[in-house]
UniProtKB/TrEMBL annotation:
InterPro entries: ArsR-like_HTH (IPR011991), AsnC-type_HTH_dom (IPR000485), Dimeric_a/b-barrel (IPR011008), Tscrpt_reg_AsnC-like (IPR019888), Tscrpt_reg_AsnC/Lrp_C (IPR019887), WH-like_DNA-bd_sf (IPR036388), WH_DNA-bd_sf (IPR036390). This is Lrp/AsnC family transcriptional regulator. One of its GO terms (molecular function) is sequence-specific DNA binding. It comes from the Bacteria. Keywords: DNA-binding, Transcription, Transcription regulation. GO terms for cellular component: cytosol. It holds the Pfam family AsnC_trans_reg. Residues 3-64 form the HTH asnC-type domain. Gene3D superfamilies: 3.30.70.920, Winged helix-like DNA-binding domain superfamily/Winged helix DNA-binding domain. Coiled coil: none annotated. GO terms for biological process: regulation of DNA-templated transcription; response to amino acid.
């Protein structure tokens, strides 16, 4: 899909204010409401816009522990990747999971109510998953930056704009 400057303006506006009305968005990007809605739908259909959501404050909800966990798997266990991938889908504490390069196989972002809850998750779920060899936890002491927004201006040159 070839994106133009107007598409990038729409994407930037929606990232900043996902609840903006179509009329307000159209005014902001200098389009008619029908043309703006058509472009937004096209961006949604193409998968450029994946979803709309509210960003919640974990601390306000009582989730005090934020941890990044490296998990290394035993390679001699049959279907270790499939089994681990399936298991982590049920763990509500895991808010992000990634296959990574380096010594570990996975990087998990885990949110827990407190250290006791986090410890229970690690000892009773993570360590008991077949194939897990090693776990290395990094507890977040302070968050300096945490965003889901992508600077769409980074891609404007790539798209030929």
């Amino acid at each position: 899909m070839q994106l133009d400057q107007t598409d990038f303006k729409i994407l930037q506006a929606l990232q900043t204010e996902g609840r903006i009305s179509n009329q307000e968005l159209a005014d902001k990007v200098h389009l008619s409401p029908s043309s703006c809605l058509r472009r937004v739908r096209m961006l949604e259909d193409a998968g450029v816009i994946q979803q709309y959501c509210a960003v919640l404050n974990p601390e306000q909800l009582g989730l005090e522990v934020d941890a990044f966990v490296q998990v290394t798997m035993r390679r001699d266990v049959e279907k270790w990747h499939e089994n681990f991938s399936r298991a982590l889908q049920a763990w509500t504490e895991v808010v992000g999971s990634y296959i990574i390069t380096g010594d570990a196989n996975y990087l998990l972002r885990v949110r827990a109510r407190n250290l006791k809850h986090y410890s229970h998750f690690v000892l009773e779920r993570l360590y008991k998953t077949e194939g897990v060899l090693d776990i290395r936890s990094n507890i977040v002491l302070q968050t300096l930056k945490d965003t889901h927004q992508i600077d769409v201006s980074l891609f404007q040159g790539v798209q030929g704009n």
